[in-house]
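=== RUN LOG ===
request id: a7f3
mode: sequence -> structure
chains: 1
length: 356
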Amino acid sequence: MLLELKNDRLIKALLRQPVDMTPVWMMRQAGRYLPEYRATRAQAGDFITLCQTPDLACEVTLQPLERYPLDAAILFSDILTIPDAMGLGLQLIESVGPRFDNPITSLADIQNLPIPDPEDDLGYVMDAVRLIRKALGGRVPLIGFAGSPWTLATYMIEGGSSKDFGKIKKMLYQEPTSLHLLLSRVAKAVNLYLNAQINAGAQVIMLFDTWGGVLTPAAYRAFSLAYMQQILDGLQREHAGHKIPVILFTKGAGCWIEAIADTGCDAVGLDWMQDIGQVRAKIGDRVTLQGNLDPAILKANPDVIRSEVAAILESYGKGSGHVFNLGHGITPDIDPENAGVFIDAVHAFSKQYHNS
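=== RESULT ===
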């Protein structure tokens, strides 16, 4: 069994090896839809304290695994830990979202950005990874993650969430050299951060490019994909004699799927706006595909959920190379029972598509 895991289904599927059934996990599987998560967050007092307290981060990472037969755990953290460690002063305001006290407004701000030491400035994340790996005891693999440089830069320049990305797009078109400098510094920080997660015990890495889909095709390649490529090229792809699979996910990336596959990643994450069978026909012989149920379907009744799961499995077809997931993160308004229906349906319905 790979990595001495009791359940190595995810690793095998990411390496396109035979599995007995399609593995499944959910983006944001440790989160506000679970009452036990809300209780632990209340104990912590706020989201940032929860992220920065390794014992509690470990606790909420494991909570969904106590409820569901998931095939992976994903580190409980946030993509904005790196900008916060760079001195931007992260606040997470209820019903508003993330805000930075010190957003990037000039070239001088970019030039003065420090590159965080992952074991020092972000040591709480590494401590959480080590605790989670120990607590898992080989039950399932642990996924580590980071935000893509472009996605992190959107928050760093906009000062928080944005509807039109006006500030960063203005920099992209008027001061592209400044934006490239920022992205290169962030890419270096992400690379160090992910390698530290691998050394601390992460067995799979996922790069979240939440906002790459707001770019033009040319800008996506130059300002998003190129920096994810830099990170991939600098990643430690093996640890302790085992391969570390890497998943790239750009929301809204339908027209760039082949370019993403060409980076050398092991898997491409798909949002719900693409037909997984059609994508497999284009690139499925090169990479594993992860996805891609619309998270809103989990608001429907169990029969609808099962039907949609069956349709995606049928579209993908026989053989390995599929990791079932949502097309984006599970939302806070989902009934935990419906999440269970989804996970059970993937396992039950997918067996017919595998020979082992």
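=== NOTES ===
The longest strand covers residues 142-147.
The chain is about 45% helix and 10% strand.
=== END ===
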